[in-house]
Amino acid sequence: MNRRLVIVLAVAAGLLLAFAAGNLRFSVWTEPNVRAVEQRGPLSEAERANIEMFERVSPSVVQVAAQSAANPLSEETEGGGGAASGTGFVWDDAGHVVTNNHVVQNAREVAIRLASGEAVRAGLVGTASNYDLAVLRIRGARKLPPPLAIGSSSDLKVGQFAFAVGNPFGLDQSMSSGIISALKRRLPTSSGREIANVIQTDTAINPGNSGGPLLDSAGRLIGVTTAILSPSGSSAGIGFAVPVDIVNRVVPELIRNGRVPTPGIGIVAASETVATRLGSEGVIVVRTAPGSPAERAGIRGVDLATGALGDVITAVDGKQVHRLSDLTDQIEQVGAGKTVRLSLKRGSEKRDVEVAVVDIGQR
Question: Is residue 311 pLDDT above 90, yes or no?
Answer without folding.
Answer: yes
